Amino acid sequence: AAAGAAAMYAGLQELGVANGEDLKETLTNCTEPLKAIEQFQTENGVLLPSLQSALPFLDLHGTPRLEFHQSVFDELREKLLERVSAIALEGKVEERYKKLEDLLEKSFSLVKMPSIQPVVMCVMKHLPKVPEKKLKLVMADKDLYKACAVEVKRQIWQDNQALFGDEVSPLLKQYILEKENILFSNDISVLHNFFTPSPKTRRQGEVVQKLTQMIGKNVKLYDMVLQFLRTLFLRTRNVHYCTLRAELLMSLHDLDISEICTVDPCHKFTWCLDACIREKFVDNKRARELQGFLDGVKKGQEQVLGDLSMILCDPFAINTLALSTIRHLQDLVGQDTLPRESPDLLLLLRMLSLGQGAWDMIDSQVFKEPKMEAELITKFLPMLMSFVVDDHMFTVDQKLPSEEKGPIPYPSTIPEAFTKFLQENRIACEIGLYYFLHITKLRNKNAFLRLLPALVETFSDLAFSDIFLHLLTGNLTLLGDEFALEEFCTSLFDGFFLTACSRKENVHRHVLRLLLHLHHKVSPTKLESLQKALEPTKQSGEAVKELYNQLAEKLELRKPSPAEVTETPSMELPLPAVPTPAPR
Q: Where does 188-254 have alpha helices with state H?
């Protein structure tokens, strides 16, 4: 209690204002306590002559003096807070800040007094530069630091990277967790997936909004956050940090914070790319704009490529570029044009290559665009186009009247070179996987089964990455009826998923997600063998065990109840009539 009382009067003595301690001392050392109290009230009450006669009137109404003084105090504090906010906007800049600085000097000693603290905090909030000494005192006191406005904290943070890092770190962890929760969500749908929310919707997320507020218009803090994101991206290779890099810049763009947008060299490029991501397509006009930015990187400014590559490494950017590439390839088939003759396609590949090379570029600090392998354009993409042609020919052939020789079977093999490309070339692998998602979405079972074996071994296991498996499981819901077929399930589960389940926990999770959604389509015998194969091991994480238990429960419910299985009793004996139980 003594500590609480001390806090209540903190700093009054320094200003020569009597406090509770002084009253205690007066009463301890006096002979006539009532007289002493009266004198203390006169000296320290509200010094208005007209008030003296009115106070006894309040006494008659039984209103305690404390209540009266408290209401006067609250009223005055409100007026003072309003006045401080007004001073911060009026007169010449130097004058207004001089007034506020004087006010801070007078009132700062009372900053720990709960009733006065809001006023002191309000003065500091309106000062663009709080004196260093005061900031140090606030920083050293946990409660004061917690109580001060974000405007004051920014001034503290900009010279204390470690403290700012402590504030930002939990937000970044939360952001990554949110992304992973979406990728592993139990809702599997082709209509609503990881890439469904528009950029503008994503920027309204809690973490982006909080970071935007913490940064304000402070370029130094913005640079610090970007530095944190680069460091974390390097340390973890987690591409969601690249998404946050772009979202943060566009969130500041939405608020028209030119102080930051004009100094971030990626601003216009990111803005243009953002529009493409919104449309999930890079049209010709925007393609030319993006190319202009890339070609415009001047000698001596190559470092900006590191930032641009991080913007292009954002999964939402890669998704847009890859979908646009697949669309272009289909158009080229219709136009009888080769990939190397399409400048738009070459630009998409250039940006994909820059995005996929982000980690290496930032790690090596060698800022130049990665060299594109000629074979990607001269061999791999024509091969993909030939798959599109195979599908067209097969469809046409099915419609032709069959002759003696019978229908032509669907091609079942894939060129060895295709598999090799997926294993050795990152861009080829990315485009190959997106083509595979494309045929799955078209419910093209023949092409699906033909290309699936090529996915078992891919460049840095990209076919077992969370984003690809999230999209694949969503698209597989369109092939739901095929799950009843033994051949299909064996190819998909035994031939693909189960090859990686034991070494990759995330694959185990995605298979269980898929089965939770589609188990009712799978034949009982196949389900039984899958249930055995997918049983968690001692090393399995909680998420896998939880999903496995959910699946086991669902399968338990599917089993016919013993009553249905037992033979029907012979009906020779008359059955006693069983009364219907009364409703409870």
A: 199-203, 206-215, 219-236, 240-254
Residue 130 is encoded by which pair of tokens?
């709080």
471: phi then psi, degrees, rounded to nearest 5: -70, -40
Residues 6+ apart with CB under 8 A from 112: 7, 10, 11, 141, 143, 144
Amino acid at site 500: A
| CA 178 to centroid of chain Cα atoms | 6
DSSP state of 64: -
104 is written with which tokens? Answer: 């801070």
Q: What span, in angstroms and rounded, lies between the C-alpha atoms of 220 and 157?
A: 9
Rounded to whole angstroms, the Cα distance separating 417 from 37 reads 99
The conformation of residue 540, written as its DSSP 8-state character, comes to -
Q: 196 is written with which tokens?
A: 């469904």
Interatomic CA distance for residues 7 and 461, integer angstroms: 61
Helix H or strand E segment including 55: helix 49-60
CA distance 507 to 500: 7
Task: Quote the distance between the C-alpha of residue 344 and its chain's center.
Answer: 31
Q: Which stretches of 266-342 are DSSP H helices? A: 267-279, 284-295, 304-313, 315-335
448: buried, middle or exposed (CB in 10 Å: 19+, 13-18, 0-12)? buried
Tell me how far apart the alpha carbons of residues 482 and 91 are, in angstroms, rounded to a whole number: 76
Cβ-contact 511, 475 below 8 angstroms: no
Give backbone dihedrals phi and psi of 149, rounded to 5 degrees, phi first.
-70, 160
What pLDDT digit, counting tens, does each position of 539-571 carry? 999 999 999 999 999 998 877 655 554 454 444
Tell me the DSSP string of 1-21: -HHHHHHHTTTTGGGT---HH
Does this model's pTM top 0.90? My answer is no
Q: For residue 37, what is the DSSP state?
A: H
- Both tokens of 426, joined, read 């990152």
Q: What are phi and psi of 74, to 5 degrees?
A: -60, -40
User: What one-letter code names the amino acid at 27?
Assistant: L
**Exposed e or buried b per residue across 291-308, where buried means at least 16 C-beta atoms within 10 angstroms of its C-beta:** bebbeebeeeeeebbbbb
Report the distance separating Cα 358 and Cα 366, nearest Å. Answer: 11
Report pLDDT digits (tens) over 344-395.
Answer: 999 999 999 999 999 999 999 999 999 999 999 999 999 999 999 999 988 8
